[in-house]
Write a structure and sequence with these properties.
- The chain has about 100 residues and is α/β, with parallel strands linked by helices.
- It has one domain.
- The protein contains four helices and five strands, in the order E-H-E-H-E-E-H-E-H.
- The strands form two sheets. Strands 1-3-5 form a three-stranded parallel sheet. The chain has a two-stranded parallel ribbon with strand order 2-4.
- The longest helix is centred in the first third of the chain and has 13 residues, at about 20-35.
Length: about 100
């Protein structure tokens, strides 16, 4: 990041507990309004992150034209951010037409 990067303290703006997918969407809407192409997201105050928030953060980061980088990311948060980047196969629901109905 250059000296012109805008630093954003994510725990102050949102919460130390990053839980809701919509919060990540709203965060990136605010990033889009910021002047400048480089944003540094400081995770130093973050204590917890859900898979939903981490995944949406990653999706939004892929969509934006801004250059986003993360700093001061705790190990547990970094692990979750890395985990959501790995594609996983979705579980398939059983075919209902093959199930036998049993009366109890």
């Amino acid at each position: 990041m250059s000296e012109r990067a805008i630093t954003v303290d994510i725990s102050s703006i949102l919460s130390p507990d990053l839980a809701i997918r919509d919060a990540a969407i709203d965060l990136f809407k605010e990033f889009e309004k910021m002047v400048g192409a480089e944003i540094e997201v400081d995770f130093s105050g973050v204590k917890f992150i859900t898979r939903s928030f981490a995944h949406e953060y990653w999706v939004q980061k892929q969509r934006t034209k801004k250059n986003i980088c993360e700093t001061n990311v705790p190990t547990s948060i970094l692990n979750m951010l890395n985990l959501v980047k790995i594609p996983r196969e979705k579980e398939r629901l059983p075919e209902l037409s093959n199930l036998r109905i049993v009366s109890l």
